[in-house]
Amino acid sequence: RACLNALLGEPRLLTMTPDALRIDLEDAGTSPEVRSFARAVIARDGNAVTGQIAVLCVVSCYCSGHFVAAPPMEVRPDGTRLTSFRASLAKFSDMKDGVEPGRPEWNRTVAAALEEARKRKPLAVEPAATRDDT
Fold first, then answer.
1. What are the CA-CA distances from residue 118 to residues 50, 66, 83, 89, 91 (Å)?
2. Could you tell me the CA-to-CA distances from 34 to 23, 100, 123, 128 in Å, in that order?
3. Mean pLDDT for the chain?
4. Burial, 97: exposed, middle or buried (Cβ in 10 Å; 0-12, 13-18, 19+)?
5. What kind and span of H or E run contains 114?
6. The pLDDT value given to residue 114
7. pLDDT tens-digit profile of 14-35?
8. CA-angle at 39, arms to 38 and 42, nearest 5°
């Protein structure tokens, strides 16, 4: 029921995977808001383990040819790939440190990177003509 409630009225072609995403609540990269909310839910449910949680992954169920891959902002020694919209977009566009989203330099840099990606246009999905759906 919680899964269905999370997606009710969702107009952006999103779905949940049958897999889970593990969030390390002790990690310095975990936001204080996520940490606080997760621990409140853990406490409400009467659990004592507060170091990590698992949540269902929400992913797009539509893959447009215009999508570009978001590079991980960090790849850890254990293979964990961390992404964050802001940090991954900055990495994708080779943004200089200290440039804030919404500023003219940010917008120009991201626009230039997107234009370059369109020129290279790696396919986000296998072309329909090469699929065998029989």
1. 44, 8, 22, 15, 17
2. 9, 22, 34, 40
3. 79
4. exposed
5. helix 104-120
6. 87
7. 666 667 788 899 998 888 999 9
8. 90
Under 8 Å between Cβ of 14 and 61 = yes
User: Region 96-103: what's the mean pLDDT?
Assistant: 90
Comparing C-alpha atoms, which of 24, 6, 27 is closest to residue 15? 6
Is 81 in contact with 72 (CB distance < 8 Å)?
A: yes
The angle formed by the CA atoms of residues 94, 70 and 60, to the nearest 5 degrees, is 155
Q: What is the rounded CA–CA span in Å between residue 117 and residue 99?
A: 21
Between 41 and 85, the higher pLDDT residue: 41
Q: What is the mean pLDDT of residues 61-74?
A: 73
Which tokens is 121 given? Answer: 């246009």
